Amino acid sequence: MAEGNVRLYDTTLRDGAQMEGVSLSVEDKLKILRRLDEFGFHYVECGYPASNPKDAEFFRRLPEVELKHAVPVAFGSTRKAMIGTDKDRGLEELLQVETRAICVVGKTWELHVRTALRTQLDENLYMIADTVDFLKRREREVIYDAEHFFDAYKSNPVYTMQTVKAAVEAGADWVCLCDTNGGTLPWEVRDIMRAVAGEIGVPLGIHAHNDGECAVANSLVAVEEGAAMVQGTINGYGERCGNANLCSIIPALNLKMELPAVSGESLGSLTELSHFVSEIVNIKPNSHQPYVGQKAFAHKGGMHVSAVTREPETYEHIRPELVGNMQHIEVSELSGKSTIIIKGKELGRDLTQSPEKVQEILDMIKEMEHKGYHFEAADGSFELLMRRHLGMHKIFFRLESFRVIMEKREDGRVVTEATIKVHVRGKRIIATGEGNGPVNALDTALRLAIGRAYPELDDIDLEDYKVLILNPEKATAAVTRVLIESGDGEKTWGTIGLSENIIEASWQALVDSIEYGLLHKKAQPER
Q1: Same domain, 369 and 444
Q2: Are residues 372 and 409 in the same domain?
Q3: What CATH number did the domain enclosing 246 receive?
Q4: Same domain, yes or no, for 357 and 482?
Q5: CATH number for the domain including 402?
Q6: Longest pairwise C-alpha distance within the chain
Q7: Is residue 504 included in any domain, yes or no?
Q8: What CA–CA distance (Å, rounded) separates 34 from 24?
Q9: Cα distance between residue 202 and residue 40, in whole Å
Q10: Which of 288, 443, 470 is nearest to 376 (CA)?
Q11: How confident is the model at residue 333 (pLDDT cuts 50, 70, 90)?
């Protein structure tokens, strides 16, 4: 096992940015860099200076960032075949960005040397050695990434070891073994790490991809066998199936392997870091992601809920607050009375002395879910349901009527218009809004109608809208379920609507979304 603290090497800004649909601006990258530094990362790979103008600009602006922990790393590759290091443009640009550390990737697999580089095996060894020596003579810390190492070792262990020894003998400070294709299995990593560790005189690292769903396991096995550096990305972002997920690796190191990679305080902000990066890259967080997902510590079955409320360890492998997450009790037809009691306690009501009320609510939930409601994804609607049943409901406005009109024009444009009549604080208000669809138009009209009375609405956004047809065999008479996810920048909540009319179902979910948001923004209700 690696001695001392394992060094965390984040490559979200380069490898993570190669994920389909991700495009980071220079400002985005600077924000993520600052946040990674605050968290306590040891190394942050900032990009490939020679690859594009955006990375070049980022490196130009890098000196304006005051880092307390992280060492910024420039990424590049070995010199080109049959070209001297002093004439290689890529190496020149690596030096120009003036980072203290440089990660240079080289070929270890005979297949790649012959097909990708189209050069001789000996020339590849010279390329590795010359590049590392060139950078070391200019006083850089050199991290040598041995690309495709595990596949290469399985194919030709003798030549593969020659490549990494060439880097070590030239002065490399680290050798990071890469599972670039992501298909190596944990026991293969274990055996190869054991074979390599005794022959390499510098610290080893691991860089795993997730094509076989083993990137986290492979990284932890590598640490167990002596790797002192782990490379990966936040949330496992990366091309194809992604990279090793540091949001799973870090708590495993700290809490399960007794190799604290970061402080306990930093670990407690891991969920926040995960969501911060997902917000920047504009990818919805995976609610079922281990450790940091919204559902990572969610409990649904009645027996589970009953046990976990008495002793969380019965169904939770760690305490969620250690990683900045929280326990979440879900409500469904599988719920038991303990779930209702817990939810009542969250609302400030002790239902332990009201078993008949608990049973009423439980029966109501089961009946509603039998009809098609789905409260485990609609926590906002469930809380409002509980409040109504317990006499705690607060009314912010009262609907008189609404009307939705869709118009298709000669030029091909489709315009949807909604007119709404509501009563707010003793006033009857009529408002009309346009949108790209009926829900958007209704949302616009409702905000116009009540926005002056409730400025808190400015912070509430509809983030997702899902429609499910529950009984498609009934064709146009089928029941539609609408789920809306909303947020205010601090928390998210789900609401639900159910009707044979999709607009009515959408209205139910929309109203719940607005009422829940205003309630938790502590807006003053009508009554």
Answers
A1: no
A2: no
A3: 3.20.20.70
A4: no
A5: 3.30.160.270
A6: 86
A7: yes
A8: 15
A9: 23
A10: 288
A11: very low
Give the integer Cα–Cα distance in Å for 174 and 244.
Answer: 19
* Residues 459 and 434: beta-carbon distance below 8 Å: no
Are 358 and 453 in the same domain? no
DSSP E strands, 174-309: 174-179, 204-208, 229-232, 298-299
Count, in order, helices (H) and strands (E) of the chain: 18, 16
Tokens coding 461: 């956004």
> Which residue segment(s) compose the domain that 444 sits in?
398-520
**Both tokens assigned to 494:** 């789900």
The DSSP secondary-structure symbol of 301 reads: S
Q: Which of 462, 454, 460 is nearest to 484 (CA)?
A: 462
| Co-location of 340 and 419 in the same domain | no
Rounded distance between C-alpha atoms, residue 527 and residue 511, angstroms: 16
Mean pLDDT of the chain: 89
CA atoms within 13 A on the CB side of 191: 10
Domain endpoint, select from 389, 406, 421: 389
Residue ending a domain, among 325, 359, 389, is 389
CA dist., res. 316 & res. 433, Å (int): 47
Q: Is pLDDT above 60 for 302?
A: no
Residues 152 and 239 in one domain: yes
Segment 467-493, tens digit of pLDDT: 888 777 666 667 888 989 898 877 888
Written as six digits, the tokens of 323 are: 């990683």
Query: What is the tens place of the pLDDT at every residue in 122-143?
Result: 999 999 999 999 999 999 999 9
Structure-block tokens of residue 310 = 């008495």
Tell me the C-alpha distance between 52 and 227, whole Å. 32
- 195 in a domain, yes or no? yes
Q: How many domains does the chain have?
A: 3
Q: Taking the CB of residue 124, how many other CB atoms lie within 10 A of it?
A: 25
Count how many residues are written for the chain. 527
Residues in a beta bridge with 101: 73, 141
Strands 328-329 and 298-299: parallel
Between strands 461-469 and 427-435, the pairing is unpaired
